Amino acid sequence: MGHLDHAAFGWLTPVLSFVMACIGAALGLRCTVRALAATGRSRRNWLITAASAIGTGIWTMHFVAMLGFSVSGTEIRYNVPLTILSLIVAMIVVGAGVFAVGYSRDRGRALVLGGLTTGLGVASMHYLGMAALRLHGDVNYDPLLVGLSVAIAVVAATAALWAALNIKSPIAVAVASLVMGGAVSSMHYTGMMAVSVQVAPSSAALPGATVMQFIFPLAVGLGSYLFLTSAFVALSPTAGEREASASAQRPVESLAR
């Protein structure tokens, strides 16, 4: 049995992964709030941005946390296609949940459906990412802890979508994002506690890419996307601000006539 270390770099990776989860949640919630106040193509675009933000934030959180994961007695590699698939699945399934909330007239049913779909998307991303692991040995899971991690993901996603539907102020969204980030991080580490590895020492080369060859550059790129998109959303006027600007211009136009 190999010894598993979930924080090989100390508190750096857990804290940084939590921050990435919070940024993704905050951006996704703000975009969903903007979407609910918009119509037509604008609503669709805001929902797409929300889905990409939440999916990217969750994926980045997972793999930043995995930077600190090590197993004694074996190296670790990652299957590149499966790793990319985990990101795509996160965005698509989270997108389905966000669109269900954004377009449904029955908010209660949409919240349940969206929370379930988004939560399962988060869990699918996590376990697809784990399936991408390549090491000398066999990876096994505790079914009870796996079930608990999926339940946490569903509850966290439902709570986040409820916040998007009911919370409008930036401060409240920030608090909700911290809660969401904590819940998603808890889901990740609950899922990791379910893992055990039976190491089979070998000198054979492992297939796949190392963390620094693939995971780290991709995580940095996606993290940069989150920061840049956050700046764009922060600088974009809200529906209320646009309406106030239009109202202020009407008297000026009347006088000009």
TrEMBL record:
InterPro entries: MHYT_dom (IPR005330). GO terms for cellular component: membrane. It holds the Pfam family MHYT. The chain crosses the membrane at residues 12-33, 45-70, 82-103, 110-132, 144-164, 171-191, 211-235. The keyword rRNA-binding does not apply. Keywords: Membrane, Transmembrane, Transmembrane helix. It comes from the Bacteria. Residues 9-198 form the MHYT domain. This is MHYT domain-containing protein.
